[in-house]
Every structure is written in C-alpha cells, then in structure tokens.
C-alpha cells in the first residue's frame, strides 16, 4: 500500500514539483491548491495524484482536506505545508492588505495544516510534517520585511513543533533560496518587481526542492532531517 502525502500549494512551482517527485517515488499524493484548472492538468499528467481545491486560509477547508484523506486512505504519512505568497514591497508603501495576505497564507495557513494533521499523526504515533519556509527566514532583504517575517515565523513554529512532538513524528523545515517560480508575479510595485528580477537572475528549478523534500521523507524512522537550506550555488 502506498504511503500518503498531502501537499498544499500544489498547482505550480515547488508544490507541483514535489507532487510529481513523490508520485514518481510511489507515494499517493493528495494535492491541494486554489487553481482547479492547474490541479486538473497535474492530475491528468501523472499517476498517483488526486487533487482537491483548497484555500489554506480557510481553517475548516484545511481540516476537511486532511480528514477526507484519512477517511479515504485510512492513514496519512506526510503533510507538506508549501502554500505561500510573496507580494513584496517597502514598508513605507503601506500596502497593508498585501501584508495581511502574506500573514494569512504563510503563517495562518501553516497553523491550519498543523492543527488539522497533528491529531491524526498523534493517534497514529507516526507522521512527517514538512514546512517550506525560505532563505528569507534567515536573512532580510529590502522590500521583503513582511515576507521574511512570515517565513521566520514559519521556521519558528515548525521548530517549536519539532521540539514538542514525540520522536515518532518527524518535522522538517526546508528553506529554499531563489527558485524559478510564479511567486514574484504577485508583486504589485514596479520598482520592486525590477529589483527582484535582478535579485532572482540566478535561480534553481523547483525540482531541486522537491528532491530535497523527497530525501527528508525517505530517511529511516529514526532519522530526522530537521532543517535544510537549498539555494543556487551562486546565491550569496
């Protein structure tokens, strides 16, 4: 029987790459995201992937996403909290609604996933949480203060989860550097878009992060890969 992995933000980028890698490794993947058309394309192009529309800011929807997987498959083996947004801007731009969106998706979305999956992992006495944080959890760049704050929060929450969980429940934080993705497409300030275009000129493909997640999940039960930073060799 295949192991079951749930992945949020799976319609593109790191989430999509992780879904494809785990499915290729024989996992049954339950992929969630808001863009149903992209999810349908993903499911049609790879075996072993089922898809469901999911908005991680909706706590009840996240709970149902997890509970349905348990009902359908009996148990779940991994939860990959990948959903994230990055509408960067300077603080003096005052784009409070964009700040709120980052807080809602990057922090509350992660907490909703933990709240939904942890009771099942505790009951099973096993499971593996993976949080996709960011190099922004470790360093701050201009225009990224709020984004980096949310990713530091994601790192801290996940590390706290690791310390609180029994050893049978493993916890991993993966912090990507610059990855080719659609994240920067949400930036609304032209000057910031140009800054990030230059900053992101050296990037790696999402597959590199999917491979890192697969590595962490593939370790023996007594090995916990607690944290990884995966970035382009040229990124400093």
Textual characterization of the structure:
The chain has 236 residues and is α/β, with parallel strands linked by helices. It has helices at 13-24, 36-45, 59-73, 96-124, 145-164, 190-199, 206-217, and strands at 4-8, 28-33, 49-53, 78-81, 127-132, 169-176, 227-230. It has a 7-stranded parallel β-sheet, with helices on both faces. Helix 4 links the parallel strand 4 (78-81) and strand 5. Helix 1 (13-24) packs across helix 7 (206-217) and helix 3 packs parallel to helix 4 (96-124). The chain is globular, with a radius of gyration of 17 Å. Keywords: Oxidoreductase. GO terms for molecular function: oxidoreductase activity, acting on the CH-OH group of donors, NAD or NADP as acceptor.
Distance between the termini: 43 Å
Structural class: alpha/beta
- Strand fraction equals 15-25%
Any low-confidence stretches, pLDDT <50, length ≥5?
Answer: none
Please tell me what the overall shape is: globular
Report the CATH C-level class.
Answer: Alpha Beta
H/E series: EHEHEHEHEHEHHE
Number of helices: 7
- Radius of gyration, whole Å: 17 Å
Looking at CATH, which topology would you report? Answer: Rossmann fold
Q: Helical residue percent?
A: 40-55%
User: What's the CATH architecture?
Assistant: 3-Layer(aba) Sandwich
Number of spatially distinct domains: 1
The major sheet is characterized as: 7 strands, parallel
Q: How many distinct beta strands?
A: 7
Organism: Amycolatopsis echigonensis
Protein name: NADP-dependent 3-hydroxy acid dehydrogenase YdfG
Pfam family, one: adh_short
Family: Belongs to the short-chain dehydrogenases/reductases (SDR) family.
